[in-house]
Each structure stands twice: as structure tokens, then as C-alpha cells.
Amino acid sequence: MINKTNVSFLTAYIELDKICCRRFGIQSGGVSMYINKLVQERFVPEREEILPRLIRYRNLRNKLAHEDGALNGITEIEKSDMKWIQSFAKTVSKKKDPISLYEGRADRYVRGKKAANIFKIVLVVLLAIAAVVALKHFGII
């Protein structure tokens, strides 16, 4: 008899993987890509909680998918694991997940830096124009 909890877990994981694939614009390996992003970006909020969970869930998924008898044999999956995956999948699909929030903040930071640099350039040009006008006014040039 197949363990229904394991099948439900596998189904929830596959759905999360599809959502992550859409999120990153890839064909497969969405959860792995999410894990890689968490590894690369050390300052993502909730990273220390989410990263080990996703790694554990990916390992469980791999066992269920590739090991003979795993659908019946694995007993470490609980309903709370499926609920977490389903909740996280909704969060990712709404772009309210930690990576999306982090990337949004990083984009705003970069845009702010660009705006500040443009402002500095404009200020320098205006000061140069003002200097030329002043020099002309006083007959120096």
C-alpha cells in the first residue's frame, strides 16, 4: 500500500517546483534554483530557516522519486511539511517570498544609486554653466 502522506508531499513539492520554474523562467529545477539563490545571497530575510528546509525537502523528493520502495518506506514526512510547502508555494507565486523581496530591495537600491549619480552629474554641469556665466558677467572671459 502506498503511503498517502508521501504521495501528497511529492505532489506539493512538484507544484512548488513548477512555481519556482515560472518565477525564474526555467524549464526544470525550480527549487534547486531557489536554493542556489539563497546560497548566493547571504542577506536574504528568513534565509536561515528556509534554506535547510528546502534542501531537506529536495533530498526527500529525490529519495521518493528515485529510490525503489521509497513511496512506502519513508516515514519522516509529516503533514506539516506539506502545509509548509503549500504555503511557501503561494508566497512564491505572489512574489512575497524572501528572494523576491530581497531582489526588489536590491533593485530599488541600485535605482537610487543611479539617480544619485545622475543628480551629481547634473549638479556639476549646472555649476560649470553657472561658473561660465559668472566669468562672462565679470568680463573675465
Explain this structure to me?
By secondary structure, the protein is mainly α. It is 79% helix and 0% strand. The chain has helices at residues 4-24, 30-40, 47-66, 70-73, 79-93, 98-137. The longest helix is centred in the C-terminal third of the chain and has 40 residues, at 98-137. The termini are far apart.
How big a fraction of the residues is strand?
Answer: under 5%
What is the helix tally?
6
Largest sheet: none
SSE class: mainly alpha
3D shape: rod-shaped
Helix amount: over 70%
H/E topology pattern = HHHHHH
Gyration radius, rounded? 26 Å
Summary, kept brief:
By secondary structure, this protein is mainly α. It is 79% helix and 0% strand.
Give the key terms:
141 residues, mainly alpha, 0% strand
Give a topology summary.
Blueprint lengths: L3 H21 L5 H11 L6 H20 L3 H4 L5 H15 L4 H40 L4
